[in-house]
Design brief:
Elements lengths: L2 E5 L5 E3 L1 H4 L7 E2 L12 E4 H8 L7 E6 L4 E6 H4 L4 E6 L2 E2 L9 E3 L22 E5 L11 H17 L1
Parallel strand pairs: 1-10
Antiparallel strand pairs: 1-2, 3-4, 4-7, 5-6, 5-10, 7-8, 7-9
Bound molecules: ligand MTE and molybdenum atom.
Length: about 160
């Protein structure tokens, strides 16, 4: 499942998980735990991917889509463009689904769930599309504690089935 970058970009593109390792070394994060405490793996910077896609001047929101489980988060580009990471590998292997793979978005410092526009819930797992837009895009992050608990229960059930 490739990662597509589209919307308000001069150069829409699609990267396979294998192509992530071919992104320029300056954009690679060999050890994500150095940047995001408690998280592991190898990733590339969002900035590096945006340098390939060339966002157009009007693009001010990034919408992260996970088609597989229909989870979406839309966050202001300015708040994440210099810190966002796409994790793609763990211990030399493709990032497993249990860790949100094949591709998982991660931010170093996020607010607690549903307390801010950029919160922990924006760490989208199984992300397959980065959509640049002008204005906020589709977002179905849980907005209340109750919705949130329900989502986590679903996730636990899904993981137990794997
Ligand atoms: N695709 C997808 N990504 C997701 C979610 C989800 O349900 N589906 N849950 C989000 C929420 S609400 C949180 S708090 C974090 C939890 O990440 P963790 O399980 O690695 O702590 O993942 C986020 N990313
Ligand atoms: Mo969350």
């Amino acid at each position: 499942m490739p990662l597509t970058i589209d919307g308000l970009v001069a150069n829409p593109l699609s990267l396979s998980a294998a192509e992530f390792s071919a992104v320029a070394a300056e954009h690679q994060i060999p050890d994500v735990s150095q940047v995001v405490p408690g998280r592991q793996g190898r990733g590339v910077t969002l900035r590096g991917l945006l340098a390939l896609a060339h966002p157009q001047p009007g693009a001010d929101y990034l919408t992260l889509h996970s088609t597989s489980d229909d989870f979406h988060a839309s966050v202001p580009l300015s708040a994440i463009r210099d810190t966002g990471i796409l994790v793609y590998e763990l211990n030399g292997q493709p990032l497993p689904a249990t860790a949100g793979g094949p591709i998982r978005f991660l931010l170093p410092d996020t607010a607690a769930c549903h307390t801010a526009e950029v919160d922990e819930c924006a760490n989208v797992k199984f992300v397959d599309r980065l959509e640049l837009r002008s204005g906020r895009g589709f977002d179905n992050r849980p907005s209340t504690k109750r919705e949130h608990e329900r989502l986590h229960q679903q996730q636990q059930q899904q993981q137990q089935q794997q």
